[in-house]
């Protein structure tokens, strides 16, 4: 069987879902003939035509706002925002409109819009092609937030997003778009529920929680730790809203030590929420302070991008800190 | 800096291009009268009277502390009724908070409007939105938020979906001139122009966005002219002339329905009251200006026209007012007796199903405080 990367997984999932559901339309910049700047929609214009694969003017408020209107009137749009960093012109549409429509209408008016956006750094993208801003969205009631790290999880979670009825921020790990490859499940009913974390590897000394591209950095760090005889249990949250607190707590109760690692800036990052949840629910199990590791609290730099991004060595230092306390 | 003259205040009657059917004194131009039956004309008049009374009642309920907030639309009744009267039940409306008349014309009962402004348990949105931030799903009136301009994009999207399925429905979105400064206005015009969606943008240029006069809102010679830049037609009309409003909107709706794409209508009108119950307009505009616009009252003008045409008598008019007042008094009495929403409704409709963290919050709150026996539904 052929293996697929994450971009191919997105493409395959969009294609199979669009074949299955005629109400699905795609909107985004350069998603038609060009197939998207990352080629995630390659070939879809040919198969589904310009009314379902809509190359839009360059305006994120326009893309997201019109997608909301389409969804109010029965379509199921999947929006591609070229880079998560470009989403801010559409932020009002997401926060004031998309997230609140169901609530403010008493459930009578809803908009099932899935917003896909490549997220995170590591592609030499500088300040504006690198940010991880998931916390803006987890801080907004009414949105679900997915942040997968593998082709299979991308497929399973994107299907769940597209078959549901709630707005979803679907954040794709662009740094590993093409580097992580695996065989995809072939059955069209393969889905992964939101709110179920994956234990990537079991361990006994330190719980390491992460998501998106950082999971792969954490895997490398766990391997380094094993050489120092520290056994790391690595958890990939996969979705941040809802987040799987049970899996995290079960692990913390076993290890008593936790590191939460993400690419996003540390202050007010989602790691802070996780740390607070763990402290509220399992402080008696903790044998060390919770260690948070994030990107630095600076804008995302171009030349020093690999210094900014937490490296396996930096994650390892956090693991040591938790283990040695 | 020299300010260009523009269609507002004193100059209104000198605008030559602006569509007008009835002049301020009720005299009219039979060549441009729209084709409406006497029954329709009287219904439109009655709707305008109802909207005025609804506004007066809303203001008085707020001043008495019986509702928390209100935004009146006195002076803009011709816009609300004239534009909405062109719609059919398959059409979508995106009224602003100053368009209770659109809700009434589309069929929303007065009782539902009062449920909304009272935020009681009969309100379909469980009292979650501020007064006059309506949405009435049964009548395709899409729930309104407070940031202005954002809904214009939804109207374009709704219209796209209708066109996508080959349906003949049209989306009508109304907004103030202040909204035209928002980026989302530009995006909506641009997308509608590119996609040629069946949408009508109806700008009620009421001269003020809270305190800012229109000449400080845009340096453009009009709002209507902006449509040209997006590749479709913009028209300027007398917004206090219900027949001009009806005629221009009907033509735009018909065009949209038959595949001709969007239109931007700019209706010149005036907000007689403050922006909201929290505003004092006397600090930013003169009494003389308000007096001038009182003489252009859209209801008095239409009544004069109807009397001149022999369709309405003074007695009919008085009878209408009495009937409307009695109806509103009865509705207010009934709706005020309805309890506030149950506390449990605080937690529902955030998502299609309640996620665990919200269920946990709801259960803890209900266990600790419950409903206190206050709410229902």
Key features?
heterodimer, A: 325 residues, alpha/beta, Rossmann fold, seven-stranded mixed sheet, five-stranded mixed sheet, 18% strand, B: 377 residues, 2 domains, five-stranded parallel sheet, two-stranded antiparallel sheet, 13 helices, 7 strands, 42% helix, globular, disordered N terminus
Q: Strands, helices and their partners?
A:
The complex is a heterodimer of chains A (325) and B (377).
Chain A: H1 6-20, E1 24-28, H2 44-48, E2 53-55, H3 60-72, E3 76-80, H4 91-98, H5 101-104, E4 114-119, H6 134-138, E5 144-146, H7 151-163, E6 168-173, E7 198-201, E8 206-210, H8 214-227, E9 232-236, E10 239-241, H9 245-255, E11 258-265, H10 270-282, E12 291-295, H11 305-308, H12 312-324
Parallel strand pairs in A: 1-2, 1-3, 3-4, 4-6, 5-6, 8-9, 8-11, 11-12
Antiparallel strand pairs in A: 5-10, 7-9
Helix pairs in contact in A: 1-7, 3-4, 8-12, 9-10
Chain B: H1 38-63, H2 77-84, E1 92-94, H3 100-106, H4 110-118, H5 150-164, E2 171-176, H6 183-195, E3 199-205, E4 208-209, E5 212-213, H7 214-217, H8 226-229, E6 233-238, H9 242-257, E7 263-268, H10 287-294, H11 298-308, H12 314-336, H13 356-368
Parallel strand pairs in B: 1-2, 2-3, 3-7, 6-7
Antiparallel strand pairs in B: 4-5
Helix pairs in contact in B: 1-2, 1-3, 1-11, 1-12, 2-3, 2-9, 4-12, 5-6
């Amino acid at each position: 069987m052929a293996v697929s990367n994450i971009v191919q997984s997105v493409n395959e999932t969009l294609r199979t879902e669009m074949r299955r559901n005629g109400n699905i339309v795609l909107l985004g910049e350069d998603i038609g003939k060009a197939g998207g700047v990352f080629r995630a929609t390659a070939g879809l214009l040919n198969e589904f035509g310009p009314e379902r694969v809509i190359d839009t003017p360059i305006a994120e408020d326009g893309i997201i706002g019109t997608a909301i209107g389409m969804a109010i009137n029965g379509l199921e749009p999947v929006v591609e925002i070229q880079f998560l960093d470009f989403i801010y012109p559409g932020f009002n549409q997401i926060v004031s409109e998309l997230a609140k429509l169901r609530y403010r209408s008493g459930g009578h008016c809803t908009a099932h819009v899935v917003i896909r956006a490549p997220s995170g750094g590591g592609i030499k993208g500088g300040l504006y092609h690198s940010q991880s801003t998931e916390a803006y969205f987890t801080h907004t009631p009414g949105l679900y937030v997915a942040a997968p790290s593998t082709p299979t999880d991308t497929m399973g979670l994107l299907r769940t997003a597209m078959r549901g009825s709630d707005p979803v921020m679907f954040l794709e790990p662009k740094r590993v778009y093409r580097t992580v490859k695996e065989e995809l499940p072939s059955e069209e009913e393969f889905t992964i529920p939101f709110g179920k974390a994956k234990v990537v590897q079991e361990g006994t000394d330190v719980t390491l929680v992460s998501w998106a591209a950082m999971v792969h950095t954490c895997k490398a760090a766990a391997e380094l730790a094993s050489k120092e005889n520290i056994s790391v249990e690595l958890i990939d949250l996969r979705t941040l809203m809802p987040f799987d607190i049970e899996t995290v707590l079960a692990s913390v109760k076993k290890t008593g030590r936790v590191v939460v690692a993400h690419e996003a800036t540390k202050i007010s990052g989602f790691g802070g929420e996780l740390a607070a949840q763990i402290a509220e629910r399992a402080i008696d199990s903790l044998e060390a302070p919770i260690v948070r590791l994030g990107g630095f609290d600076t804008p995302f730099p171009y030349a020093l991008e690999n210094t900014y991004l937490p490296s396996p060595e930096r994650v390892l230092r956090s693991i040591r800190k938790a283990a040695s306390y | 800096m020299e300010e260009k003259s523009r269609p507002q205040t004193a100059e209104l009657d000198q605008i030559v291009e602006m569509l007008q059917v009835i002049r301020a004194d009720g005299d009219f131009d039979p060549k441009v009268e729209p084709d409406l039956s006497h029954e329709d004309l009287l219904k439109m008049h009655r709707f305008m009277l109802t909207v005025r009374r609804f506004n007066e009642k809303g203001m008085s309920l707020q001043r008495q502390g019986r509702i928390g907030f209100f935004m009146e639309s006195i002076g803009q009744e011709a816009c609300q009724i004239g534009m909405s009267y062109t719609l059919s039940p398959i059409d979508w409306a995106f009224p602003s908070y100053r368009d209770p008349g659109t809700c009434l014309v589309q069929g929303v009962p007065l009782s539902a409007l009062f449920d909304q402004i009272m935020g009681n348990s009969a309100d379909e949105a469980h009292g979650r939105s501020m007064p006059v931030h309506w949405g009435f799903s049964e009548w395709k009136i899409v729930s309104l938020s407070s940031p202005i301009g954002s809904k214009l994009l939804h109207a374009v999207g709704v219209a796209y979906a209708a066109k996508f399925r080959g349906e003949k429905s049209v989306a009508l979105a109304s907004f103030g001139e202040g909204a035209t400064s928002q980026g989302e206005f530009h995006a909506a015009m641009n997308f509608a122009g590119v996609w040629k969606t069946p949408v009508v943008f109806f700008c009620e240029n009421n001269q003020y966005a809270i305190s800012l006069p229109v000449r400080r809102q845009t340096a453009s010679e009009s709002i209507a002219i902006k449509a040209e830049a997006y590749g479709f037609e913009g028209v300027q009309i007398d917004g206090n002339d219900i027949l001009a409003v009806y005629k221009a909107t009907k033509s735009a709706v018909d065009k949209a329905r038959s595949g001709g794409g969007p239109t931007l209508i700019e209706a010149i009108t005036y907000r007689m009251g403050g922006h909201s119950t929290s505003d004092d307009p006397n600090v930013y505009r003169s009494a003389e200006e308000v007096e001038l616009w009182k003489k252009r009252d859209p209801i008095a003008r239409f009544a004069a026209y109807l009397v001149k045409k022999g369709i309405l008598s003074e007695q009919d008019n008085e009878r209408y007012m009495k009937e409307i007042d009695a109806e509103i008094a009865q509705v207010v009495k009934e709706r005020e007796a309805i309890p506030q929403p149950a506390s449990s409704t605080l937690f529902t409709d955030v998502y299609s199903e309640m996620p665990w963290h919200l269920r946990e919050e709801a259960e803890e709150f209900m266990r600790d405080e419950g409903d206190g026996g206050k709410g229902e539904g």
